[in-house]
From TrEMBL:
<feature type="domain" description="Response regulatory">
    <location>
        <begin position="1"/>
        <end position="44"/>
    </location>
</feature>
<dbReference type="Pfam" id="PF00072">
    <property type="entry name" value="Response_reg"/>
</dbReference>
<protein>
    <submittedName>
        <fullName>Response regulator</fullName>
    </submittedName>
</protein>
<dbReference type="GO" id="GO:0006355">
    <property type="term" value="P:regulation of DNA-templated transcription"/>
</dbReference>
<dbReference type="InterPro" id="IPR036388">
    <property type="entry name" value="WH-like_DNA-bd_sf"/>
</dbReference>
<dbReference type="InterPro" id="IPR011006">
    <property type="entry name" value="CheY-like_superfamily"/>
</dbReference>
<dbReference type="Pfam" id="PF00196">
    <property type="entry name" value="GerE"/>
</dbReference>
<dbReference type="GO" id="GO:0000160">
    <property type="term" value="P:phosphorelay signal transduction system"/>
</dbReference>
<keyword id="KW-0238">DNA-binding</keyword>
<keyword id="KW-0804">Transcription</keyword>
<dbReference type="InterPro" id="IPR000792">
    <property type="entry name" value="Tscrpt_reg_LuxR_C"/>
</dbReference>
<feature type="domain" description="HTH luxR-type">
    <location>
        <begin position="60"/>
        <end position="125"/>
    </location>
</feature>
<dbReference type="InterPro" id="IPR001789">
    <property type="entry name" value="Sig_transdc_resp-reg_receiver"/>
</dbReference>
<keyword id="KW-0805">Transcription regulation</keyword>
<dbReference type="GO" id="GO:0003677">
    <property type="term" value="F:DNA binding"/>
</dbReference>
<dbReference type="InterPro" id="IPR016032">
    <property type="entry name" value="Sig_transdc_resp-reg_C-effctor"/>
</dbReference>
């Protein structure tokens, strides 16, 4: 829940402290009604965006959790930019098997393209975990 601090005796250190502690806005009395309405509207919009981002991240984490260990290995190879042939050599499996795992990863992650898959991995914090 976003917080808007309203005070009759504000100063810069108090405002800085409030913002460091997570306040969305800091209003000093007297303020006009429009300033309050605008602050509330912006705070609610940011809250909605944060909730959506959190739900999207939870969905992404769920997709990643659905991957098998070998699918995760293939995903890590893809994130690192390796070809199917290199991934196959690194995992001691055939390139055709990598293609199958890669298709499974794309399906489970609901990615339409490799670039979308890499974007998801970056969002999930997987980039660089080769």
């Amino acid at each position: 829940m976003p917080v808007i601090v309203i005070t009759g005796h504000g100063d810069v250190p108090l405002a800085v402290e409030a913002m460091k502690l997570g306040a969305f806005d800091f209003l000093e009395k007297p303020f006009d009604d429009e300033a309050m309405v605008t602050a509330v509207r912006l705070a609610l919009n940011r809250s909605k965006q944060a909730e959506k981002a959190s739900a999207d991240r939870a969905d992404l984490d769920k997709r990643i959790t659905s991957l098998s260990s070998r699918e995760r290995d293939v995903l890590n190879g893809l994130i690192a930019g390796h070809s199917n042939k290199i991934i196959a050599a690194n995992l001691s499996i055939s390139p055709r098997t990598v293609e199958i795992y890669r298709a499974n990863v794309m399906t489970k992650m609901q990615a339409e393209s490799l670039s979308e898959l890499v974007r998801m991995a970056i969002t999930a914090g997987l980039a660089g975990s080769d």
